[in-house]
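Sample entry as discussed:
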Amino acid sequence: MNPYLDIALRSLAVYAFMLIAIRLTGKKELSQLNTIDVVLILLISNAVQNAMVGDNTSLLGGLAAAAVL
């Protein structure tokens, strides 16, 4: 499989999961988030980075993930 297609599919899967998780918490607007929520989102984004790009830490890999999102 093309490594960039793999990154795109992984990024879409993580995005869909995170979108559903955030919707389930009931906070739809950024103004409804408090400091703890923002810190949690930053920690989760760092944790799922490896799930999106895997072993590909190249610039193109990161750009592919960002383009999909």
Notes: The chain has three helices and no strands. The chain has one domain: 3-68. Residues 3-68 form one domain.
